[in-house]
């Protein structure tokens, strides 16, 4: 399984990476600080089965990135990450 973690927060990225590595040691984990790099990777053939995506990122927001991933792989599981409760509720 290909798992993407996409967040511009370096601490959050490392924390999620460490947790996912422990829980899913046999899966391929791809970590990105830049949402455009994650999108380029998916378009080039490294397609996520599951993606943890921060809602609030520069250049390309998490909702938009999730939409692009769904266009590439309709069955991708999207988990949105929000630092701000109001932002999370607005996204829903």
What is the secondary structure topology, with strand pairs?
Elements (H helix, E strand, L loop, with lengths): L1 E5 L3 H14 L4 E5 L2 H9 L6 E5 L7 H11 L4 E5 L3 H7 L1
Parallel strand pairs: 1-2, 1-3, 3-4
Helix pairs in contact: 2-3
Structure, described:
By secondary structure, the chain is α/β, with parallel strands linked by helices. The chain has a single domain (about 1-90), classed as Rossmann fold (3-Layer(aba) Sandwich). Helices cover about 45% and strands about 20% of the residues. It has four helices and four strands; from the N terminus they run E-H-E-H-E-H-E-H. It has helices at about 10-25, 35-45, 60-70, 85-90; strands at about 1-5, 30, 50-55, 75-80. Strands 2-1-3-4 form a four-stranded parallel β-sheet, with helices on both faces. Strand 3, helix 3 (about 60-70) and strand 4 (about 75-80) form a beta-alpha-beta unit. The longest helix is centred in the N-terminal third of the chain and has 14 residues, at about 10-25. The model has no long low-confidence stretch (mean pLDDT about 90).
